Amino acid sequence: MSGKESYTAGEATRALGISLDTLRRWDREGLIRVSRDRANRRLIPAAEIERLRGVEPHTLSARNRFRGVVQQVEIEGLLARIEIEVTEPVRVVAIITRESAEELELKPGMSAAGVVKATSVMVER
């Protein structure tokens, strides 16, 4: 992660791609090791976050992965629609033509949007 020894509940939920309610439930059920600060707020050790994240190798590049929390599941017939709210910062890298870059007058520091176009999005846990 970033060299910290422990993380607040909010930081841990973003790192794990879970909701705060899930973190609280895991704490109550003893599924996650949590300590408390002087104000009785949850602190999660970095090693615990790494344990829960796992170190499974991924076959997709990191640029293709947007971790988040499932917000909605709609199942109809043979298909399911899954809505995931991205909970971590992402970086989008695009390869465009020189002509397009010059036409857009792109410069470091200016605002721009990356539009991801794909024929499919896979979901992993």
What does this entry look like structurally?
This protein is α+β, with helices and mostly antiparallel strands. The chain has two domains: 6-53, Multidrug-efflux Transporter Regulator, Chain: A, Domain 2 (Orthogonal Bundle); 62-104, no CATH class. The chain is 26% helix and 21% strand. It contains four helices and five strands, in the order E-H-H-E-E-H-E-E-H. The strands form two sheets. Strands 1-3-2 form a three-stranded antiparallel beta sheet. A hairpin with a 5-residue loop joins strand 2 and strand 3. It is flat, with a radius of gyration of 19 Å.
Shape assignment: flat
| Largest sheet: spatial strand order | 1-3-2
Described by strand count, sense and barrel closure, the largest sheet is: 3 strands, antiparallel
Low-pLDDT sequence parts? none
Q: Briefly, what CATH class of the largest domain?
A: Mainly Alpha
Rounded radius of gyration (Å): 19 Å
Order of secondary-structure elements: EHHEEHEEH
CATH architecture descriptor text of the largest domain:
Orthogonal Bundle
First-last Cα distance: 19 Å
Note the beta-strand portion. 15-25%
Please, how many domains? 2
Count of helical stretches: 4
Estimate percent helicity: 25-40%
Derived from helix and strand composition plus strand pairing, the structural class reads: alpha+beta
Total beta-strand segments: 5
- What do the pLDDT scores average to? 82
